[in-house]
Design a protein that fits this description.
The complex is a heterodimer of chains A (407) and B (380). In chain A, helix 3 (76-91) crosses helix 7, helix 8 packs across helix 14 (338-353) and helix 11 packs across helix 12 (303-317). In chain A, strands 1, 2, 5, 6, 7, 8, 9, 10, 11, 14 and 15 form an 11-stranded mixed β-sheet that branches. Chain A has a two-stranded antiparallel ribbon with strand order 3-4. Chain A is built from 14 helices and 15 strands. The two termini of chain A are 29 Å apart. Helix content of chain A is 35%, strand content 19%. In chain A, helix 12 links the parallel strand 10 and strand 11. The longest helix of chain A has 16 residues, at 76-91. In chain B, strands 1, 2, 3, 4, 5, 6, 7, 8, 9, 10 and 11 form an 11-stranded mixed β-sheet that branches. Chain B is α/β, with parallel strands linked by helices and 380 residues long. Chain B has 2 domains: 22-244, Thiolase/Chalcone synthase (Peroxisomal Thiolase, Chain A, domain 1, 3-Layer(aba) Sandwich), CATH 3.40.47; 253-376, 3-Layer(aba) Sandwich (Peroxisomal Thiolase, Chain A, domain 1). Chain B has helices at 4-7, 37-46, 75-78, 89-104, 124-136, 155-164, 179-192, 209-218, 239-244, 266-280, 301-312, 325-328, 335-349; strands at residues 22-31, 34-35, 113-119, 170-174, 198-205, 230-238, 251-260, 288-292, 320-322, 357-363, 368-376. The chains are: A alpha/beta (407), B alpha/beta (380). At the A-B interface, helix 5, helix 7, strand 6, helix 8 and helix 9 of A face strand 3, helix 5, helix 6, strand 4 and helix 7 of B.
Chain lengths: 407, 380
């Protein structure tokens, strides 16, 4: 049925802009230490909200990271994406001019696009009516500006694609980038995602009863919900043979992926459909469940997510569940960037040799059944060979990527 | 890490792999020209302007400029009466285009079907009104939770999947003016990878005061160019799947290429994706008989598109110019698929011969450019 591309595809560059630091090294060190980097919101006025914690990138200075584009012309999500992409290219030891000379593009996932820009305009609307919208800000609204910011920053001439499949969008992006490189449509692809904190999502999640007061603790018996978050993440993908030829550091190989849709409910995930997605991802990667050494969970911090995700994993893995952890316990839910951050930490786990932790787990929820190992507290030293990265979204959009260590 | 010289070795990109042709086996459209492909085809072929009265569509005042809107959405007839109370206009338009498409599809959709839906920013009305509530209510969280899903950009694609039981790939492409060609390219890959057996490829944009003022104030649209709305959808499958099942192929999508150009080089960038698209399907510029333009009415871009198309076609004008926006207005995230639906509608209305070759082009200010190559099929 499916036609696997001719080329093996590897990840050779990583970039992150997050509450846990800027750059993949800072990010990884923070995650390995199990450090919680969520904090009270400052980017919008949270007064009146009973819960004010979020994973905000405080004091982000785009001019420090961006070389070509003028941040004044781009929204916060685009700035995050372009900064992360710039960092990923540097991390890969490549010159942007070389990328610009070949078929290179970007594919970025997002949930709410340039939501901070939209809220700036809503502020103008509230104050003086729609006729008072600042014209120069209006042009930064379209969500497609996120991938466009990446291509503009790096001078890329290939596709600039923004996928708005909500909270699994980065995994969608990674899968698509993998196919483009494997099939020869592109020589390099930057894949990832970006989102910005915004009042409307904060209000919406609070109103749904899904927002934690201060601490997000997936898999814990006393979890109380998600924390909203923001950031940008990018992975640089290229053909394995070129990476080897140029002596690049290879973090991981993209082995396969799968996407499907529950088609049942907009907000309640479906374990059977997720299990089908996991199985299809295994088939795509040519691996058996017994070969999966770790699962980077969607792990939002809600009871519903944990119960559904563990049930789906159990359906595929039976009694032997791989260790499964959620980095959202530390950085919150970065929405469209979430599965991108998951992919990034998977790459580092494979390359550096560790399993990322779930922070804040005091007592693993017994209702999840036996054998759930959320790697509580701090990272565990290990040598994972093949790992699985989950992304589930609003609308029932599931996307799962499989990454492997290159021996 | 090795030496800087090795790391900076430029990469010679090989020729692009040949593109797999896709078959369009159904099409549906809703726009200011009316409900259905026939209305759109007639409007495009005859140069008829669509419905221009926005009465009842907005509580906010509208900018002083022409508009093109869908007068009465046939929600009860085409979507049903159940569970539509909280759907926003974007989702309703998409569901109507989907219903119209499935009604003309000779096969059965279902489990192994997917959705790839183009947008600009989802429903900008839904997200900005929801955000406004956080400012206007006594407490910022006193928003209506049943409206929260409408603020998420993949809401319409998710609703389509739920209502029709489509478990395949479900992607939302925030491509703005590039949504059509980007969605086709995404769908082509998804079909090739087996993420679905058939995909509804669409685009949607609703008319609202927020975006009307945005267009009006930004200067990105010519002063007399109407702001429009609409949705269009194509059922797309790999050609052998369609022909093996005996489904008539309305059109073949031979290529869809995208690229990105720096400011000042947009015409070159567009011309080169047009050339690449033709090369990739082994067709010559002189075979092109029609062009469906995407930049109609966009300040500065309209001329860039004309120049790029002329350059790629060696200076000659194709026989048929399709400018769907002259009938339906500026429809942003829906433009690309409306360009295709408008072309197919015009082909059918004028009984165009099978085999006519058409370009569908798109260019955006930020740098995105794209081109699809279509061939007329059994449209009669």
């Amino acid at each position: 049925m499916s036609e696997r591309g001719a080329r093996r595809v590897v990840v050779t560059g990583l970039g992150a802009v997050s509450s846990a630091g800027i750059g993949a090294d800072e990010f990884t060190a923070s995650i390995r230490a199990g450090r919680r980097t969520t904090s009270p919101v400052r980017s919008f006025d949270p007064s009146g909200f009973p819960h004010v914690h979020a994973g905000e990138v405080h004091d982000f200075e785009p001019r420090r990271w961006l070389e070509r584009i003028d941040p004044a012309h781009w929204g916060r999500s685009g700035q995050f994406a372009a900064s992360a992409a710039r960092l990923a290219v540097q991390d890969a030891g490549l010159a942007a001019e070389d990328l610009a000379r070949t078929r290179a593009g970007s594919v970025m996932g997002t949930t709410s696009g340039e939501s901070a820009v939209i809220e700036e305009l809503v502020g103008a609307w509230a104050a003086d009516g729609l006729k008072a919208l600042p014209p120069d800000v209006v042009g930064s609204v379209p969500a497609g500006r996120i991938a466009a910011a990446v291509n503009s920053e790096l001078g890329l001439t290939g596709e600039a694609l923004t996928l708005a499949t909500a909270c699994s969008a980065s995994n969608y992006a990674l899968g698509y980038a993998f196919d483009m490189v494997a099939d020869g449509d592109a020589e390099y692809m930057l894949a990832g995602g970006a989102d910005s904190l915004n009042r409307w999502a904060h209000a919406g999640f609070y109103r749904l009863g899904a927002l934690a007061e201060e601490v997000c603790r997936p898999f814990d018996a006393d979890r109380s919900g998600i924390l909203t978050a923001e950031g940008g993440v990018a992975l640089l993908l290229e053909p394995y043979e070129r990476a080897v030829a140029r002596g690049a550091r290879i973090y991981a190989e993209v082995l396969g992926y799968s996407v499907n849709c529950d088609a049942e409910h907009m907000v309640h995930p479906d374990p059977t459909s997720i299990a089908a997605c996991i199985r299809a991802a295994h088939r795509s990667a040519g691996v058996e469940p017994s070969q999966i050494d770790y699962i980077c969970a969607h792990g939002t911090g809600t009871r519903t997510n944990d119960a559904t995700e563990v049930a789906a994993v159990r359906e595929v893995f039976g009694d032997r569940l791989p260790p499964i952890s959620s980095i959202k316990s530390m950085i919150g839910h970065t929405m469209g960037a979430a599965s991108g951050f998951g992919a990034l930490i998977c790459c580092r786990a494979l390359y550096d040799g560790f399993l990322p932790p779930t922070a804040g787990v005091e007592r693993t929820d017994p209702d999840l059944g036996p054998g759930v190992d959320p790697i509580p507290g701090r990272a565990r030293t290990a040598r994972p060979r093949i790992v699985e990265n989950h992304g589930f979204a609003f609308g029932g959009n599931n996307a799962i990527t499989i990454l492997g260590r290159v021996a | 890490m090795t030496s800087a010289a090795a790391l900076s070795a430029p990469v010679a990109a090989g020729p692009l792999p040949p593109a797999t042709p896709l078959a369009v086996t159904a099409v549906g459209a809703v726009s200011a020209a009316g409900i259905g492909l026939e209305a759109l085809g007639r409007a495009v072929a005859e140069g008829i302007a669509g419905h221009a009265d926005p009465a009842g569509l907005s509580e906010e005042s509208l900018p002083p400029r022409p508009v093109r809107v869908v007068p009465d959405l046939p929600v009860a007839e085409l979507i049903g009466r159940k569970g539509t109370r909280h759907l926003d206009r974007t989702t309703k338009l998409a569901l109507i285009a989907c219903r119209l498409t499935l009604d003309t599809y000779p096969g059965r959709a279902g489990e192994r079907s997917g959705v790839v839906l183009g947008t600009s920013t989802g429903s900008i009305r839904s997200s900005s009104e929801f955000s406004m509530e956080t400012l206007r209510q006594e407490r910022p969280y006193l928003v209506n939770p049943s409206l929260f899903p409408n603020t998420v950009m993949n809401c319409a694609a998710g609703q389509i999947a739920i209502r029709h039981g489509l478990h395949g790939v479900n992607a939302t492409i925030a491509g703005g003016h590039l949504s059509g060609v980007q969605s086709l390219k995404y769908a082509r890959n998804a079909l090739r990878q087996g993420h679905a057996d058939r995909i509804l490829v669409g685009g949607v944009e609703e008319f609202c005061a927020q975006s009307a003022w945005g267009w009006h104030l930004s200067g990105a649209l010519g002063v007399d160019v109407p702001v429009g709305e609409g949705a269009a959808m194509l059922m797309v499958e790999q050609e052998p799947t369609a022909s093996d099942a005996g489904r008539p192929v309305l059109a073949r999508i031979l290529a869809c290429e995208t690229g990105y150009g720096p400011p000042g080089r947009l015409a070159d960038a567009l011309a080169s994706v047009v050339t690449a698209a033709l090369e990739r399907c082994g067709r010559r510029p002189e075979e092109v008989g029609a062009v469906s333009y995407g930049a109609t009415g966009l300040t500065g871009l309209e001329r860039i598109e004309d120049r790029a198309v002329r350059a790629a076609l060696g200076g000659r004008s194709p026989g048929r110019d399709v400018r769907v926006k002259e009938s339906v207005g500026e429809c942003f995230g829906a433009d690309g698929v409306l360009q295709i639906a408008g072309l197919l509608g015009a082909w059918r209305y004028t009984a165009a011969p099978a085999g006519e070759l058409a370009l569908v082009t798109a260019v955006a200010r930020d740098g995105n450019v794209g081109c699809a190559v279509l061939e007329a099929g059994a449209l009669a």
